[in-house]
TrEMBL record:
CDD domains: CAP_ED (cd00038)
GO cellular component terms given for this protein: cAMP-dependent protein kinase complex; cytosol
Pfam family, any one: cNMP_binding
InterPro entries: cAMP-dep_PK_reg_su-like, cNMP-bd_CS, cNMP-bd_dom, cNMP-bd_dom_sf, RmlC-like_jellyroll
Source organism per UniProt: Marivibrio halodurans
Protein name (Swiss-Prot/TrEMBL): Cyclic nucleotide-binding domain-containing protein
Domain (Cyclic nucleotide-binding): residue spans on this chain: 1-88
């Protein structure tokens, strides 16, 4: 990674800085050199839910590069940190120079990942109405039980 590290930009973020937001285009992936980064996703209530805390040596932002989709989560510096940013163009250039088998394998893995994410979204969408109906039914049963207990 030393060739990549020297060829690409190092970036510094202060604690609290937003590195990227959920929904942003994925044009880079990042390798953490120092500090910690939090990954977050906006919940149904509009608040951010923490997904993971990453530290030195870990990579984030690669999903959007692999799938060429908008970022599925946001990233924020939890403490002062330094990262190496690797652009999509740099990765594409490396793949162009790579052994054809390795380049094809990377593209197949990215395609498989994209298919898996599509399927996950389908399952989540299909399950949501059923889950909502079950929760509504349980809430109604709880309300009836509370009415019975309180004599209302």
């Amino acid at each position: 990674m030393s060739d990549t590290a020297s060829a690409l930009g190092k970036r510094r973020f202060e604690a609290g800085d937003i590195i990227f937001m959920e929904g942003d285009p994925g044009t880079e992936t990042f390798l953490i050199q120092t500090g910690r980064v939090g990954l977050m996703k906006r919940g149904a209530d509009g608040l951010f839910e923490p997904l993971a805390t990453l530290g030195p040596g870990q990579v984030f932002g690669e999903m959007a590069l692999a799938t060429k989709r908008p970022r599925a989560a946001g990233a924020r510096a939890l403490e002062d940190c330094q990262v190496i940013a690797v652009s999509r163009a740099h990765i594409d250039e490396k793949l162009k120079d790579a052994d054809p088998f390795i380049a094809a394998l990377f593209r197949i893995l990215a395609g498989n990942l994209e298919s898996t994410l599509d399927r996950k979204r389908e399952v989540e969408r299909a399950g949501r109405p059923r889950t909502d109906a079950v929760l509504k039914g349980r809430q109604e049963a709880l309300d009836r039980a509370m009415d019975d207990l309180t004599g209302a």
